[in-house]
């Protein structure tokens, strides 16, 4: 049997009880272009037409409080400009967990939260084995 073809695109859907502030955050603060408004979900492009994030109306409150545990979500956006993003977010009044940190695993990153409380990371790979866009 021949395996199916590889995946062409990826969407991460995030659910918010009040999606309006999240939609503004992803469009205005993170400056992601809206590619489709489905009413209950708005889908934004991340880095072209291969990666997307969807902001959707939640059916109820989130039950997972620590996103790094089973069932949690961390949305990671890859950028060479981690320090510039840190300055931009700070200027927009968005608190980050810490200034940019270079981790032992060969990345530099920051963490912050969106209006619905999702943990986001902006990360730069310092490793030569990471595939470049």
Automatic annotation (TrEMBL):
Signal peptide: none
Domain VOC residue range list: 7-125
InterPro entries hit by this protein: Glyas_Bleomycin-R_OHBP_Dase, Glyas_Fos-R_dOase_dom, VOC_core
UniProt name for this protein: VOC family protein
Species whose genome carries this gene: Siccirubricoccus deserti
